Amino acid sequence: MNAPAPVSLRHRVNQARLRLQASGQRLVIAVPFGWLLLFFLLPFALVLKISFAEFRIGIPPFTDLVTFTDQAYLRVTLAFSNYLRMVEDRQYLVAYLNSLRIAGGSTLIALLIGYPMAYAIARAPKGPRAVLLFLVVLPFWTSFLIRVYAWVGLLKGNGLINAALLSLGIIDQPLLIAGSDWGVHIGIVYSYLPFMILPLYATLEKLDPSLLEAAHDLGCRPWKAFLTVTLPLSMPGVIAGCMLVFIPAVGEFVIPELLGGADTFMIGRVLWNEFFLNRDWPVASAVAVVMLVLLVAPIMLFQHLQSREAPAKTEARP
Amino acid sequence: MPDQTKPATDRPVKHPPDLPGCTKKLGPPIVEIESVVKKFGDFTAVDGVSLDIFEGEFLCLLGGSGCGKTTLLRMMAGFEQPTSGRLLIDGKDMAGVPPYERPVNMMFQSYALFPHMTVEQNIAFGLRQDGMPRAARAKRVAEMLALVELERFALRKPHQLSGGQRQRVALARALAKHPRVLLLDEPLSALDKKLRERTQLDLVNIQERTGITFVVVTHDQEEAMTMADRVAIMDQGWIVQIDAPQAMYEYPNTRFVAEFFGDVNMFEGVLEEDEPDHVRIRSDELPVPIFVGHGISGREGATVWAALRPEKLTLSSEPPNQPHNWAEGVVKDIVYLGSTSTYIVELTSGKRVRSTIANHARDVEWTITWEDRVFVSWTARSPVVVTS
Questions:
Q1: In angstroms, rounded to a whole number, what is the distance separating the alpha carbons of residues B264 and B255?
Q2: What is the complex's ipTM, to 2 decimals?
Q3: What is the mean pLDDT of chain B?
Q4: Does residue B15 belong to any structural domain of this protein?
């Protein structure tokens, strides 16, 4: 018989290279996975564990789930009382609803302000576009806390805005903005606007301008062309932007604390109170877990629906 | 319908050109472009173009990139406004008329299909804007789908279609509103060669069946030659020549046109003799004068160029028995193209010329081959003399 053809050697080299490539790909994916595992899943597991514990005075301020009895039996104690309290005590429900309402309102306002801004930036000539994008992210260069605090100075009863409006004679009594839900809305919209603008900009910038021209060419007036072409095609950006604003806004603590009133009772405050005032870690953990579930469940559902639609899109070509 | 009995305006009546070898009758001018200039900053994209496009015509705007052909098309569509000059469609001045109020539709180079709509919805888009009732709309969409043979794909989204199918959707969408003029921006540039050739004929058929005036922008001279009733060659914002493809090929009016519209051998020379029935040109690139069997209106002693198409040069191993119109050279290369072969011959003057010979028979004898000494010759009716 002949010696093995050189083709088979090359084949084997190719196989080895493919294997190496595959393992390289796995390595690349492993980095973010490892990160999420270490800094998200592990802490979350701890919080989940504490939420099933019971309050006690001591360090740490909760009971162990797993104990050994005298007979060396392993005993697992799961306390559902913390979750029951979420249902029984109305203050939690009110706080959750408040959070959703304020976060939802702020997200809507941020969308209404952010969309035209993102659109204008995407349509701006190349040079100014870079400057405008830079201006959008510029506020991140100062401390978040200082910026929110600055809004207190602007919005409070004898603050800049009220003083200006009073001296102009537009109002005769200072407006109560800081210390109300409006203050919180302003604070959230201001702080999270870049997170709305950037994903919107990314989708609007990719939009082929000839699509709009085609719409105009086919007899569509500009405003209608926006509604029938631009808006539907920018939905991925709208959804991404809204999530990036809504999710952190729900759990926001600093902004309602500084700009909200006594009646602005959001879930972040509840968490703070339980952790630092009552030192009831198990209840605080339960609050956090419920919040996470409330936020993650709709997103998972949405993603599931999206991926169900996706295979239909890639059906076989003729 | 055009009303021939009463003149629409007091401007002189413009008659459509005769199209040699074509039975098509053209109507009155439908697009009138009068000394239109378009500047983008310092750059002049269109530099004083005047052009009449007649009803029922298939016109190709042909030129290299940056010649202003697309800008001219976009001005007709209303996406650009002329810096100066007038553009009339159906006798109406289009200044300040936005694209959505013009009786023209455009097929985009990128097709610009709406990715979030099905084929059907894409085609119906323009009709919907006009407020056409649902039943009539469905009927028209079905007609259009049949016209481009896409009935089976009505419910697909654009990304589920092949390039050729997408091209046909774009065509159907642009035709659905029965525009007075259909503007096509490089309609075939994204297709592969085979499909492109088939689609050229499809476009011609559809144009003839619908009777809609087509204005096609292209950079491909073969495409223009295949499809157009008339071709307008543009260069640096100008229309250099506008003619039927055959006239354009056989009677180019400048060196630029001769070289752009097909292959050509160009000989530079001095006009020695200019009589009404013949012209004699002395060229340093040839051992004998060029004799042309018709007169031109040139000054004797002026520099002129004789343009000779490759298929009009014949090759022989024996010196031709004529006092002019030949040269001697060596075969440097043979390009076999199936139906024809192109011989590249280096003349004794160093100039290279191309001669295309039809391959009539399969068992053709290769009498002339590489490095052979050959004689190139042509008849007095073959060259075209251009003065610029």
A1: 10
A2: 0.84
A3: 89
A4: no
Cα separation of A70 and A65, whole Å?
16
**pLDDT at residue B366, rounded to an integer:** 63
**Over residues B29-58, mean pLDDT:** 94
Looking at the structure, tell me whether residues B131 and B276 fall in a common domain: no
Determine, for residues A219 and B161 on separate chains, whether the beta-carbon distance falls below 8 Å: no
A211 neighbourhood in chain B, CB within 8 Å: 112, 114
Q: Residue B106 falls within a domain, yes or no?
A: yes
What's the one-letter identity of residue B206? I
CATH number at residue B275: 2.40.50.100
Rounded distance between C-alpha atoms, residue B53 and residue A149, angstroms: 68
- A220 contacts B129? CB cut-off 8 A: yes
CB contact under 8 A, B114 and A219: no
DSSP for A173-202? S----TTSHHHHHHHHHHHHHHHHHHHHHH
Subunit contact B108:A213, Cβ cutoff 8 A: yes
Q: Residues of chain A whose C-beta is under 8 A from some C-beta in B?
A: 208, 210-211, 213-221, 224, 228-229, 232-233, 313, 315, 317-318
In this structure, what are the phi and psi dihedrals at residue B232, rounded to the nearest 5 degrees? Answer: -110, 115
Chain B residue with CA closest to A230: the answer is B114
Using alpha carbons, select from A221, A222, A215 the residue that is nearest to residue A119.
A222
Q: Is B12 inside a domain boundary?
A: no
Q: Which of B77, B114, B159 sits opposite A217 (nearest CB)?
A: B77
Q: Which of residues B255, B278, B306 is at a domain's end?
A: B255
Q: Which of B97, B108, B113 to mutate to test the interface with A (most CBs of A within 10 A)?
A: B108
Residue B51 belongs to domain with CATH number? 3.40.50.300
Partner-chain residue, chosen from A208, A217, A229, that has the shortest CB–CB distance to B110? A208
Query: What structural domains does chain A harbor?
Result: 90-265 (1.10.3720.10)
Q: List pLDDT tens digits, range A104-128.
A: 999 999 999 999 999 999 999 999 9
Given this model, what pLDDT does residue B339 score? 86
CA dist A195 and A311 (Å) reads 30
Lowest mean pLDDT among A266-280, B28-42, B98-112, B144-158: A266-280
The reply to whether B217 and B323 lie within a common domain is no
Q: CA-nearest residue of chain B to A235?
A: B116
Q: Given A210, A228, A315, which is nearest B110 (Cβ)?
A: A210
Which residues of chain A lie closer than 8 angstroms to B110, CB-CB?
A: 208, 210
Chain B nearest-CA distance from A228, in A, is: 10
Q: Is there a single domain that holds both residue B294 and residue B373?
A: yes
Domain count, chain B: 2
Q: Is B168 on the interface with A (CB under 8 A)?
A: no
- Which ranges of chain A have pLDDT less than 50? 1, 311-318
Give the model confidence (pLDDT) of B225-262 as tens digits: 999 999 999 999 999 999 999 999 999 999 999 998 88
pTM of the full structure:
0.81
- Residue B123's identity, in one-letter code, is I
Q: How far is B214 from chain A, CA to nearest CA, in Å?
A: 16
Q: Nearest 5°: phi and psi at B349?
A: -75, -5
Is B11 within the bounds of a domain? no
Range(s) of the domain holding residue B308: 265-386
Tell me the HSE value of A6 on the side-chain side, using a 13 A CA sphere.
0
pLDDT at A310: 56
Q: What is the C-alpha separation between B343 and B359, in angstroms, rounded?
A: 12
Peptide bond into B7 cis (omega under 30): no
| Contact call for A217 and B105, based on CB within 8 A | yes
